[in-house]
Design brief:
Elements (H helix, E strand, L loop, with lengths): L2 H7 L13 H11 L11 E5 L2 H7 L10 E7 L5 H24 L3 E5 L5 H7 L6 E9 L22
Antiparallel strand pairs: 1-2, 2-4, 3-4
The structure holds flavin mononucleotide.
Organism: Paenibacillus borealis
Protein name: Nitroreductase
GO molecular function: oxidoreductase activity
Amino acid sequence: MTIIDTIQTRRTIKAFKPDAISEKELNTWLEAASYAPNHRMNEPWELLFIGPETRAALNHKTDFGGAPVLIGVLSKPAASQMERDENVMAVSCYIQNFMLAAHEAGAGVFWSSLGATVRGREILGAPQEHDVIAVLAVGYPAEIPAAKQRTPIADKITYLP
Ligand SMILES: Cc1cc2nc3c(=O)[nH]c(=O)nc-3n(C[C@H](O)[C@H](O)[C@H](O)COP(=O)(O)O)c2cc1C
């Protein structure tokens, strides 16, 4: 797949096969994602591997589509609001890289915001100053949804003088 194909064929996956993902392969995607742009090379992402007890406590309505792996992704605190925002941006780039690497390998990811709620943060034990960016459900897709159409980019462009 070209990078354009990989970007355009990735989908949010909401139904997973129970098949395990090898630790080695998962690690390859997580490492590759670290090449995300990040200001001052502060690599603001931190990962929580979510075990069965924590998963049960999260009590997601579909149990994350039966995904075999759940990873919480946190963004490190910062000294100013601007740096904090930049950390969140860099972590989002990290997640997109991860999702594309997984997709290229035939796996799929569901980005859930559940961990960012007050209750979700408590269950994950997120430190007060950290932002919870995602709970990522990862596995092999049982169903691949159709693409959701995007607005033509021309509609989003303003030309400045
Ligand atoms: C910051 C962020 C939070 C999201 N949170 C949720 C969520 O809580 N539940 C959900 O069903 N999808 C969530 N999504 C996935 C979007 O719904 C999905 O990306 C969008 O519908 C486009 O579909 P696609 O990823 O298949 O192109 C989230 C995506 C992002 C970027």
